[in-house]
Amino acid sequence: MICFFLSLFSQVFQSGWTGVNERTFIAIKPDAVQRKLVGEIVQRFERKGFKLVALKLVQASEDLRMDHYWDLRNKPFFSGLIHYMRSGPVVAMVWQGLNVVKTARTMLGETNPAESLPGTIRGDYCVDVGRNVIHGSDSVPSAQKEISLWFKPHELQLWERNSTPWIY
Ligand code: IDP
Ligand code: MG
User: Fold this and answer.
1) What's the CA gap between 84 and 68, in Å, rounded?
2) Which of 121, 140, 151, 163 is the most buried (most CB within 10 A)?
3) Ligand 2 center from residue 111 Cα (angstroms)
């Protein structure tokens, strides 16, 4: 019980998401939802040992899609990307754990599936850069920005995971 309250306290009052409290934003894109890859992808993060903090199926609004990919607004593929992200619901998630931002990017593979190794999500499940099944934040500041875009604070669950002492 004491551990539970200590953990809640540290999650609520932590000034930054560091160490085992680091968080990343992961989105399973519309193509992966259509191709029934949601379970496979969620399972990889669960089995790795990361903690699920939030998960929802969302049809992203125009504003949300634009804000999310604003840095890429001058790229030639930007309008196609915005259209792709509107083509169906997205599974928006927050995962937490030690080095989760960098490790999740490794688990995703490269932006272009052709350059992604087998064993990575993009290496295993897709072939086209324009249908690359998953998004993952590229840095801690991006993760903080993206989590606040996609989730309201109350949607981030504070919960004690019994397996944590077997992971750390
Ligand atoms: P990332 O998703 O690996 O971080 P970014 O460069 O941030 O890659 O690009 C965001 C998304 O834009 C990619 O995941 C992919 O869906 C799309 N994208 C990137 N490059 C291309 C391209 O050359 N053609 C079409 N779509 C692209
Ligand atoms: Mg990116």
Assistant:
1) 13
2) 121
3) 8
Length of the chain: 168
Instruction: Decide whether any atom of ligand 1 lies within 6 Å of the 70 Cβ.
Output: no
By CB neighbour count within 10 A (0-12 exposed, 13-18 middle, 19+ buried), where does 116 fall?
Answer: buried
Q: How many angstroms separate the alpha carbon of residue 81 from the centre of ligand 2? A: 12
Ligand 1 closest atom vs CA 108:
3
Catalytic residue numbers?
135
Question: Alpha helices, DSSP H only, in the chain?
Answer: 2-13, 30-34, 38-48, 62-68, 78-84, 100-108, 121-125, 140-150, 164-167
Question: Residue ranges of the domains in the chain?
Answer: 16-166
For the question of whether the overall pTM of this predicted structure is more than 0.85, the answer is: yes
Pick the CATH number of 16-166 from 3.90.180.10, 3.40.50.300, 2.60.120.10, 3.30.70.141: 3.30.70.141
